[in-house]
């Protein structure tokens, strides 16, 4: 597991694991003042489907938690912990399905160009000592500047558009500078709502 660095460390009475490889989520959790380690879930997200985006992001966040918990048990890490350990998993998506073709991916992104998209993000916190689990979701509306054709070409060539709901990963370095306005919280759009995360941490403790 990889360690995360805090900007202004809190007086933590527990250990924290962030179950995500997202640089944006790492940065947000560090901004919140937490010390944490990183562990990724490596689940097959494509195999998990739900009709409602709110349900999908919740189920995916829980599936990530289950996968990481299984790995931690298999390597005997939990028995060695002297303090309570909390696991945070999350998922974010644009309220739209993954594009099924290059043509559809281009159309999705062109629709956002100069327009808007609704984002929904989940957070799921598990207390590995007690088994207590709490989750929730928030949504935000994102308004985009014009998205140049060369950016669309680069995103499609990279293949990222086919892996995420709505065909657009908001925290991607090519996408983020083209976000004009956010109605809601920026951290929700980036992948980890600070207020929701704090609330769920307190609930599982």
TrEMBL record:
Keywords: Hydrolase. SUPFAM superfamilies: ITPase-like. GO terms for molecular function: hydrolase activity. The keyword Hydrolase applies. Pfam families: Maf. HAMAP family: Maf (MF_00528). This is Maf-like protein. It comes from Castilleja foliolosa.
